[in-house]
Amino acid sequence: MSAARIETDSMGNIEVEADRYWGAQTQRSIENFPIGRDRFIWGRAIIEGLGLLKGAAAKANGELEQLPADIADLIVAAADEVAAGDLDDHFPLVVFQTGSGTQSNMNSNEVISNRAIEMAGGEMGTKTPVHPNDHVNRGQSSNDTFPTAMYVAVVMELHRELFPKVKILRDTLAAKSEQYADVVKVGRTHLQDATPITLGQEIGSWVAQIDQALETVAASTTGLMDLAIGGTAVGTGLNAHPEFGDRVAAILAERTGHPFRSAENKFAALAAHDALVTTSASLRTLSGALLKMANDVRWLASGPRNGIGEITIPENEPGSSIMPGKVNPTQCEAMTMVSAQVFGNDAAVAFAGSQGNFQLNVFKPVMVHNVIESIRLLGDTCVAFNDNCAVGIEANTDKITSNLDSNLMQVTALNKHIGYDNAAAIAKHAHKNGMTLKGAAVELGHVTSEEFDQWVVPLAMTSNK
């Protein structure tokens, strides 16, 4: 270690790099949890959530006369820097730590304390005039602050990183649906030919599925508005002012623009995080919708000569190191891999959410990490897919027409005129003898040429009007 100062906690002295704002408990966590250090450092969202919470807590404690005004102001100023991202380099801890998030809570307390001391002209590490526990953590426990920061972070990430990014893709697909509203093509069920639909209807189904999934995600945020703050260690609120939880939640609501409130039952707010489990499940649902859409796109664009080939998509990069000229549906592949990761993240969240014991769930960090990763991955893949694939989707009308002309399932339009059995006989005769439907129908004598043209109209088959 380079130049160091001595920090202290209840376990004694420990050296900390002199230019770092963190203190003893953060340093112990660095040394005790070298787990995924290069891959699982806390991201911006949870640090921002902690900064917002600590600032709101100090403001509430000042208003409730639990802290001197000057101390509260110093904490708010330092916490604002944390929330803004100015001190991210001073948050070195990994996800895999104590399950309550105690080390990350203390990391924020220590950074804010030392930064506030520096602002006041004091010496870092002295805990004077701002103490990390007595002042920054006043009226709080890691058991209620960390889950509060978790929920704040997730809500903000959803509104910042997920909803607007998914909407970009959704709107592009909606425009494509309108553009191809009258392009009639083969429908497919069981990966077999089915009655006709329009390309617009096919793309429109993706839009509807995304819309429904987004509504599910949005609905899941209701539970995230109930904050644990004010419950302190086990839910009783010991050492917190009776109005502290409500006051902090109100400040956070005003600061973020989201209707946060103090949870009615603080015991449940500490012991379980079912709201986060629900949000994770809704993200899995969205990933399933995107997975289906991406798979449809790559099937429809398969080829270029020996696949379905009813749409074309942008050619972004070479697809093979050995086959010259090969181009692959890489954005579809990336999106489906994201979906697989989100499914895995949700499995971890669901299991972790089931592991509360008595008054505390001790899987909090891995739960929030996986939810935030899912949010980020889904948002990013939607933008990439939109910009590099969806905007360039085009109908291959020649292939669509060719496939439609040979589609035996158009015979379904004859059911109400000649009956199912006769229509089935036409389809089988046409397939066995390599004939058109019309030719088979006329040859078998079930309809005339004129009747076939009158009754079998592909565009009319795409609507029940």
Shape: elongated
* Helix segment tally: 17
How large is the share of residues in beta strands?
5-15%
The third-level CATH topology of the largest domain is Fumarase C, Chain A, domain 2
CATH superfamily of the largest domain, by name, is: Fumarase/aspartase (Central domain)
Summarize the structure in words.
It is a single chain. The chain is mostly helical and 465 residues long. It folds into three domains: 4-138, Fumarase/aspartase (N-terminal domain) (Fumarase C, Chain B, domain 1), CATH 1.10.275.10; 149-225 and 268-396, Fumarase C, Chain A, domain 2; 406-462, Ribonucleotide Reductase Protein R1, domain 1 (Orthogonal Bundle). 58% of the residues lie in helices and 8% in strands. It contains 17 helices and ten strands. Strands 1-2 form a two-stranded antiparallel sheet. Strands 3-4 form a two-stranded antiparallel sheet. A two-stranded parallel ribbon has the order 5-6. The radius of gyration is 30 Å and the shape is elongated. The model has no long low-confidence stretch (mean pLDDT 97).
List the topology elements.
Layout: E1 4-9, E2 12-17, H1 24-32, H2 44-63, H3 69-84, H4 102-119, H5 132-136, H6 142-179, E3 184-189, E4 192-198, H7 199-224, E5 226-227, H8 244-256, E6 261-262, H9 266-271, H10 274-300, E7 311-312, H11 330-353, E8 356-357, E9 360-361, H12 364-388, E10 394-395, H13 397-405, H14 415-418, H15 420-433, H16 437-444, H17 449-455
Parallel strand pairs: 5-6
Antiparallel strand pairs: 1-2, 3-4, 7-10, 8-9
Helix pairs in contact: 1-4, 2-3, 2-6, 2-8, 3-4, 4-6, 6-7, 6-12, 7-10, 10-11, 10-12, 11-12, 15-16
